[in-house]
Amino acid sequence: MGTITTEDNSEWFSANRKQTLHSEWFLSHCHIHKYPSKSTLIHQGEKAETLYYIVKGSVAVLIKDEEGKEMILSYLNQGDFIGELGLFEEGQERSAWVRAKSACEVAEISYKKFRQLIQVNPDILMRLSSQMARRLQVTSEKVGNLAFLDVTGRIAQTLLNLAKQPDAMTHPDGMQIKITRQEIGQIVGCSRETVGRILKMLEDQNLISAHGKTIVVYGTR
């Protein structure tokens, strides 16, 4: 862990600036941890003291009801921050669970240390603010979908969104994703059986192909 100095700042967003935080300068002030797939990074209700940054892999952000039923709020990927809300108000508790969707490498930094970093380089805060604005937009779209789309429309929109994720794979007929029917149901708010029926209908309409967890969304490349 290094001492923060203005000289450290010189490498930040170098000649090939691509708005990325994969910077040795930033990561040198973080603790790097590895999490296996399906492990829990953040527990809902625990005290928020740390900001996370995904170096590799992807995670699911989800909430649970009193009976343990889960709803997936979003997927976050390489280059995304996690747990930023507690940065702006002390004493916050985690509002959701965060679970590794794949094996992950995550940089962790205390809120106090992160506040020191943004004094040296405000660009970090701009990056974080940009992500927060984008997530708010996605949340607004999701609320609109819940209000105005039926379950078929919500599932179709979810498949299109997943086809744009970094872990989607190119396929000759479109984009290939891997997701269970249960996970789709947790995203759109319906049963696994309903998801299965709608996937079959979309397949009959030659919009997708679905075999187990593998779904090809046609025409999305």
Automatic annotation (TrEMBL):
Gene3D superfamilies with a match to the protein in the record: Jelly Rolls, Winged helix-like DNA-binding domain superfamily/Winged helix DNA-binding domain
Domain of life: Bacteria
SUPFAM superfamilies according to UniProt: cAMP-binding domain-like, Winged helix' DNA-binding domain
One Pfam family from the record: cNMP_binding
Transcription regulation keyword on record: yes
Keywords, in A-Z order: cAMP, cAMP-binding, DNA-binding, Nucleotide-binding, Transcription, Transcription regulation
GO CC terms: cytosol; protein-DNA complex
An MF annotation (GO) of this entry: DNA-binding transcription factor activity
Limits of the HTH crp-type domain: 149-221
Domain (Cyclic nucleotide-binding) ranges: 35-135
GO biological process, one term: positive regulation of DNA-templated transcription
Protein name: Catabolite activator protein
Organism: Enterobacter agglomerans
The encoding gene: crp
